[in-house]
Amino acid sequence: AGTVEEVGENITTFKRGDRVMALVRGGYAEFVTAREALASHIPETISFIEAASVPCVFLTAWYGLTALGQMQSGERVLIHAAGSGVGTAGIQLAKALGATVYTTAGTDLRVARGISLGADAGINYSTEDLTLQLLHLTGGSGVDVVLDNVGGGIFDATLPALARDGRIVNVGSPAGTRSTVDEDTANSKNQRVHSSQVFNNTQEDTEGSGWRQVSEWIANDTIRTVIDRVLPWGQADHAHKLLRSRSIFGKIVLTIE
């Protein structure tokens, strides 16, 4: 999040001095360029700090659920890793889109916080059988859409609880060993597994539909940013250590004085 310093000849949406949040590569640089399609005006209801926590996680979750997951209102949606940035965004977006939402985390506290964001139920995958619990929650039918930014054993335990015509969207790189999908089983149930990196699908928002909906919901408090803590730029190394320790819930924002 920041102010526009320069406006290209073909850009009509922004002007110099506008408050803008954008999904960019190289965000640690002093100055960055952003594609117009990946930038949006900051809603007046939030600060620069709050805006800094929006683009990566909310656009990633939005396109994972809508473009890849093809989520429909009324479906059962599973959001893994409730405490992650994408997890906190995914729970809120899936609920706002009309889904019954389930979430997972590795501690009871993180599960409870995921439920407080709007999930209908949660599972502690460290102490509970993920497959059995998902089947129990869905009356044996399984979940329709899964947003998974964990992978590994969590992905393996989710597959048996994926409904017929179900879709799993993997975001980023998996934790632990890489999994394989039984293609015969998946094909017989018309199940699909999509893999996506942050920039792959969000760049397709040439009409700004994702930005418009996310900004509207932020402005009317349907969804909210989740920031664990704010640190000065000089503590970037400490911020990375916190991320690796998995001791945070939501996002860390670095500020420049």
Word description of this protein:
The protein is of the alpha/beta class. The protein has helices at residues 48-52, 55-68, 85-96, 108-116, 130-137, 152-158, 183-188, 198-202, 209-219, 236-245; strands at 2-3, 19-22, 39-41, 76-79, 100-105, 121-124, 143-148, 162-171, 192-196, 227-232, 251-255. The protein is built from 10 helices and 11 strands. It has a 6-stranded parallel beta sheet with strand order 6-5-4-7-8-9, sandwiched between helices. It has a 3-stranded antiparallel beta sheet with strand order 1-2-3. α2 packs across α3 (85-96). The chain starts with a strand and ends with a strand.
Summed up, what is this model?
By secondary structure, this protein is α/β, with parallel strands linked by helices. Helix content is 34%, strand content 21%. Strand 5, helix 4 (108-116) and strand 6 (121-124) form a beta-alpha-beta unit.
